[in-house]
Amino acid sequence: MSKILVISGHPHLDRSNMNAAILESLEDKFNGDILEVRRLDELYPDFNIDAKAEQEALVDADIIVLQFPIYWYNVPSLLKKWIEDVLEYGFAYGSSGTALHGKKLLLSFTAGSGADVYHEKMAHDLPDFMPAFQETAALTGMEWQEPVYSYGALTDADLAAKHSDRLIARLVEISA
Ligand SMILES: Cc1cc2nc3c(=O)[nH]c(=O)nc-3n(C[C@H](O)[C@H](O)[C@H](O)COP(=O)(O)O)c2cc1C
Fold this sequence. Notes:
This protein has helices at residues 18-29, 40-43, 51-60, 77-86, 115-121, 131-139, 159-175, and strands at residues 4-8, 35-39, 63-69, 104-110, 143-144, 148-150. The protein is of the alpha/beta class. The protein has a single domain, classed as Rossmann fold, CATH 3.40.50. Flavin mononucleotide is lined by residues 10, 16-19, 69-73, 110-113, 153-154. Its EC number is 1.6.99.-.
């Protein structure tokens, strides 16, 4: 089975309902030979990211999952900094930057606002905010996967379990 690397971009997992529960479900489902979860808030509370260690983890993986809560229609700043520091020229892009070629990139994210808010009050739906990440996958030679996402994280108590089920099903499907 493919090796799955989950990069958790939540800046405060100790205060999380959704993302913490989703990570726990993944760890319950997949054993440590298949799954590595890197909790950026624990590893880098000071935002001082160890690019070499992160790159080694990426090289080892077949599927890379970015797991995060939507903050201001984007990834949290800790995950943005991870992207900036880790996807270096010569590693992730450039003529010799081929380390990520052929790996699958899957975004898994949660949003506080409900689907009704996105559909009726906003000019853009939730997945419409992700083209920059799709281009990042293209530039780095990764295979873009349709994201797994949930609306209404603040209102639906069962949402983490439903999200985890969909994410696990997708991971099993693309691992085959
Ligand atoms: C700084 C900040 C910015 C946020 N921005 C958005 C946003 O742009 N859109 C949205 O739907 N929810 C937004 N939220 C709500 C979070 O996405 C929501 O609380 C989170 O997905 C729940 O996951 P958790 O329980 O793991 O923290 C924001 C929350 C915070 C703290």
